[in-house]
Amino acid sequence: MVYLKKEERFNGTFTKVSNEIAEEIKELYLNKKRGVWYMGKKFKLSPTTIQKVLIKKGIKRRTRKELGKIYRKSNFSIDKLTPKLAWVLGIVATDGHIENATTKRSGGFDISSIDIEILNNIKRICNKPNAKLGKRGQNPNQRRLHISDMCLYDILIGIGIPKYRKTYTLGELKIPKKLFIPFLCGVIDGDGNKHKNNTFEITSISKKFLLWIKEELDKHFNNNSCNIWDYTHHKGGCYRLYCYTKYGKLLGKEIEKKGYILLKRKIWWK
Description:
Elements: E1 2-3, E2 16-17, H1 19-30, H2 36-43, H3 47-56, H4 64-71, H5 83-95, E3 96-99, E4 108-113, H6 116-125, E5 133-135, E6 143-148, H7 150-159, H8 166-169, H9 180-191, E7 192-195, E8 199-204, H10 207-221, E9 226-230, E10 239-243, H11 245-258
Antiparallel strand pairs: 1-2, 3-4, 4-6, 5-6, 7-8, 8-10, 9-10
């Protein structure tokens, strides 16, 4: 029997685990990559008891990197991205942040927004209908959505979205050329807005990110299509990318023709 010490008492009684069950726990943890919560339900033991049995067996706790490999559902590559998922990446790049894997859930991303339409679109596209919208901050209209998906987590890291201080360190991203426009629609829905001259503008603290978007749009139109204004000298300053009216209308017609996702209130060409 595997006995726990007096100070490791649960519910006023000693916890006893037979050698057979202890060996089975070891087998499930090491070879079948099962977690303590799963084994707790299977053997009707608390997760803490399972952890202490593993310690008695000399087994170390898994690292986050090891957890990420275990929770990965499939080898999803960026080549299989769709325009709708590219739109989600644009939202995450502006209004979201990456969440690492933990012992209780796989890696993914968080998004906070006052626009419920954006959050519901993300739930539908990521096939997470049961994902709950929690409250965020003091604003009663602010909602937070967490999506756990190691496939999308890998893609977010792979295209270059930073885990930490994203607002300041965001720069050039590895977005396939054919998906840049739907990705841009997500960026506009996140940090963009309509401009009075029937075009759009994007606001960001990261100048590198806006320079990359300008470069990609210039390639798309084979001409100088945008300008970046510096507002950093103002309180809470930032940079703004402004698309010239001619190219803004051309881009709007392309978005409408191909049916890319864009919020109705962000449509600038009508």
